[in-house]
Every structure is written in structure tokens, then in C-alpha cells.
């Protein structure tokens, strides 16, 4: 009833839910459950206990909502996991499992996105016989088996929508174009869009710089706006620029499906540009501050030194050379802690996801539901007709919702290495938002003015998803390969690099010849020719698939001309 | 079994014994209220096509004809022939533009604007009219409908 493009959004949502279920299964089953069942329990190690200082507030709802306190020191976050090589009677290799699940979730996501793209491309290539489109719609769309009035109503509505879609397609293909005017208008529109993007980027840069200035002067002197300026500006830009793009796109006079793609592309560029400007401005700030803060290595040494001194204080003043004295039992909550940046990063991602979810729900409730209630009930006592003029009922915003979904998934991919609980949270969020949005669409939205048939393949959405997947995995891969893990928390503590767990496993658990073979195979002299071979085979397969498509088209044309000929005979 | 369905529509009119071929015709209102047909927008035309005198009142023979054409066992060409007659509202053996307009309006319950209806009808004539006389003859219709993938699936009332 709402048209196939709205339906395609929900199909996309359902597919994402399937992926998230699998990611959830992997992280839950292979990381969280083994640690919860077989690892050392809460309170046995310093990294697993809430520090004494925070204990008083650890159970408060506010702390838990912020994911500190007890939530932080649990299987939900990276910091809880112990670096023992094997745990429990099953000799489950926890660090190896953590690493492999992290890499595996990313690998699986890549595979499934590309597989879906390939499958969609195949369907598209088949195509259908459109020579009798309208005739078939007219004479064969009624289902004679329908026996109840509700189904009949739905069928009437869907037939009407299907006719309208076909009419729009026909009108678009018949439009006479004044080529020069159209081209000029399109260039103008793109120019305006670029100006908007540049303007928003500059605004963010300016605002972040201002907030640095405020921070230097002490935040207490400024009101609520100055403190939250950066967040507010980013949210406001995110709300108003898409509407601006919508207005600009009316200049361009494209087919609605193509206009939607341009709109999506522009909003995508807007969000990316904002994000990058934000990060760059932050980096500037951090670099500024870093001159005054010691880097992590020195911080580590400081904390270790503090710990030895503190231990010594337990032995009443003497610092023993070899600790032959019996170890004194200390409550883990009292042990001083080192910094744990992975858990902090994980917490940030979780907070971001939760606040994003809240924003979406509130927007739906206020923007759609309250607006519909207002229009319906105040229409009687208002000067102009609320239902047809402003504000009227809202239409379902496909581009906004699709992008929200894709960016949200990007956050999950980025953060799930540091916070294994993220896929679980996302599954819950998708589940509830599926039903909430479905209800909102049926009850508060009206079908769009011009319905258009969504492209049969969702390849455009998939391509964006692939791009975001690639971008999100870059930070995680970078940290795995070049940053040393925190020495005091997580399954990789004590190692110089996270991927060392693989070489350790090869040494201990596999026969020695395996290690040798692996060593030979990872020689760059072997890997580079292999990469070259893959590139060449990609090129070859691409060329053959193009030639098959052309042969297919030729055959179709021949078939049509043969049919026409046999009718006239 | 179909005979009992026919009889159940009006037990007082239809005798159980048909050996002396009584001339019993059930009025259209009873036929149109059958569960298989009551939601169908073309039920009036279906009844008219299968009834002897073209006004929708059906004898038992007409009733049986109707269900046999709409069943799974009827051949495609037979179904196409009767479908043509159903969509030919003015019974002139051609589906002309006004017939098409009536069909579209019945299918969409008059929700399309007149311009849209006209566009759809023009497109249908453009697509299916091979002999270029501005209306669809039986041959044009059959040529178009036998290739439709959904024709057999939807144009069916199983017994």
C-alpha cells in the first residue's frame, strides 16, 4: 500500500537483523559465555573488581545507564577478560577465541555483504519481459481466489499503487527534456550542495576550536549552550541539511529513484565530512594537550612503580629484592589500576549507540505520532486545513532511515572488538525498532505523493554498507597491528602486540612443522605474487561477465523480433 | 457437488430431480453473493457472460460451465476466450478504449484520475494492438494473455 520502496527499507532492516543475530551468536557464545562460566569470577582479580573508590556508586541506576560501575567490570567490556592462555577444565583458549571472534565477525560481514551484492546483480541481469507490462497489470492482477473483504481491500490498494508506479515510470520516460537547461540546473544544484557541505564542515571546525578555548578558560564560566555547543551544532546540522538537500534536488528534475540516490549520496557525504572534520579538530586538540601529558609507555612505568611502592608499604617499609615473604592477602578492590583505554573506547561506543537509539525513538514518537495526533484532533478548531496544508501527516523518510541504519551498523562494527556486548544491544535495538517503525508507518504516515518502484536489487544500499564496513574496520585493524594493548586489563595484557596470540598458539598447540610452514608462507616473496595473481583473475572474470551480459541482451532482442514476426504471419 | 452448491443458493426454486430439465434460472443477486464471487469486481460481467440471455440469471448448465472454465483443468485457450468476453463490456467482440476504462476503474475502485486512466488505456492499446485498429480483437488479446506469467495462477477458482 505504501509502495515498494518503503517495503524495500523494511526488507533491508530484516536482513540486517539476520546479520546481527549471527554476530551476536558469535560474540555471545564464544566470548561472553566461556568467560562467564569458566573464567575467574567477579572479585578474584583486580581487573575484575570495581575499585574501592567507585564502590559506593557502582550500583546506582545513573552509573549503570552510563555503563560504568558494575556494568563496566563485567563480561560486557574488554577490560574484564583475563590473559590466561587457557581457562577452565575444557582448556578453552580465551585470548585466541577473543581475537578470532573479533576478526571473524569482520570477515563474516564482508563475505555476506559481497555475497548479497553478487546475488542481487544476478537477479538484475535476468530482467523480465516488459513488452506487455500494462496489459498484464490490467488483465491478470486480480486474484480470483480472494474470498474475504479485507484481503480484497488490500488487493485493490496494491493494484492501485502498482498502476501508479507504472504510470510514473511511463511519464518519466516520456518527459521531454530541454537538455541545456536541465544540465545547467543540475550543475547549479551540485554547486549549491557542495557549498552546503563546505559550509557545514567549516562550521564544525570553528565550533570545536571555540570549545577548546572555552575548556582552557574553565567550563564553569559558561552556560549550557557553550558546554554542549559541539554536540548541538552537529545534531542541528544533521537535522536541517538534509531538508536543504531536498529543496536543492527539486531543481534537478530527476526520476524519483535517481533523485533518492543523489539525496542519499549527499547526506552520506555530509555525515562523513562532519565526522572527519570533528576528528581532525579533536586530533589537533589532543596533540596540543599531549605535549603536556606523558605518553602511555611512561604512564605504564609510573603506575608499575606506584604499585611496587604500594606493595612495599604492605610489608611495612622494606622493599624486598626477591619476594620470599609470604604474599599478603589483599582485597582486589584496593589494588591501584592502570589505564584501560580499550574499555573506555568500548564504553564510548556503547553510549553512542544507546543515545542514538533513544534519539530515534523520541523522534518517531514526537515527529510522527504526536504530529499525527495534533493534526487529527486540532483540525476541527484551526484556521486552515491541517491535513492538506502544513503540517499534515508526515511521509516515511526513506533516506534518513536507511542512512541511520547503515551508520549505526558502522558503529557496531567499529566497537564490537572492544565491547563484546555491542551486537547484543544492537539485536535488541533492531528488534524493537522494527516493530515500532512498522506501527508508526501504518498508523501515522501517509503514502508518498509519487510512488516509484524501488530498484529490484538493493545494490545501492549494499554498496554504501560495504564502504562503511571498510571504514569501520580500519581503526580496529590499526589498533590490533600497531598499538600495544593495555598492560593491566583485557585478554592480551602483557603482550607487545595483540596478534602475538596467534604466534603463541602456533608455538604451543600445533606441531612444529606447522609453524615452519606458516613461517614460509608468510614470506613477502610469496605473498606479493599471490596478490598479483588475484588482481589478474579479478580483471579476467570482470571481462568475461561483461561479454556474457552483452550476449544475453542480443539474444533477448532476437527473441522479441522472432515473436513479432510469427504473429504477423 | 456443484449441483448441491447451486441448489443451496435457493432450495425452494431448485428441484432435486433434474431428469425432465426444468427451466430454473437463479437471479444474479444470488449468484453474486456466493463466497467465491462476492469480492470479485468482475462478478457481474462473469455472470452475464456465462448466462444464456446475457442478463446474469443462470441455469444449472450455465453455472456448471462457469465453474468448469474457471477450474484448474480448463485449457489456457478456453480461459483466454472467456476472459476476453468478460472484459468486453459492450459485447461488440472488441475490447475498445471504453471497455478498458471500465476495467481499470473497477480494478482501482475509481482512485485514479481520468488522465491516469486514459494514459493506462492508451498504453495497453499500444502494447497489445497488433492490427492497429485502435481496439483489441480476440487474436490480439489471446496473443498477449498466453504469455502472462500470472494468468493461470490468478484466473482460477478451484472446486
TrEMBL record, chain A:
The keyword Translocase does not apply. It is a multi-pass membrane protein. Signal peptide: none annotated. One of its GO terms (biological process) is detection of mechanical stimulus involved in sensory perception of sound. GO terms for cellular component: plasma membrane. Residues 340-455 form the TMC domain. One of its GO terms (molecular function) is mechanosensitive monoatomic ion channel activity. It comes from the Eukaryota. Its main location: membrane. Pfam families: TMC. InterPro entries: TMC, TMC_dom. Coiled coil: none annotated. The chain crosses the membrane at residues 15-37, 58-81, 96-114, 184-208, 232-251, 263-283, 460-481, 517-541. It is found in: Membrane. Keywords: Membrane, Transmembrane, Transmembrane helix. Belongs to the TMC family. This is Transmembrane channel-like protein. It comes from Centropus unirufus.
UniProtKB/TrEMBL annotation, chain B:
CDD domains: EFh. GO terms for biological process: calcium ion homeostasis. SMART domains: EFh. InterPro entries: CIBP, EF-hand-dom_pair, EF_Hand_1_Ca_BS, EF_hand_dom. It comes from the Eukaryota. Residues 75-110, 116-151 form the EF-hand domain. The keyword Repeat applies. GO terms for molecular function: calcium ion binding; magnesium ion binding. It holds the Pfam family EF-hand_7. PROSITE patterns: EF_HAND_1 (PS00018), EF_HAND_2 (PS50222). SUPFAM superfamilies: EF-hand. Keywords: Calcium, Magnesium, Metal-binding, Repeat. This is CIB3 protein.
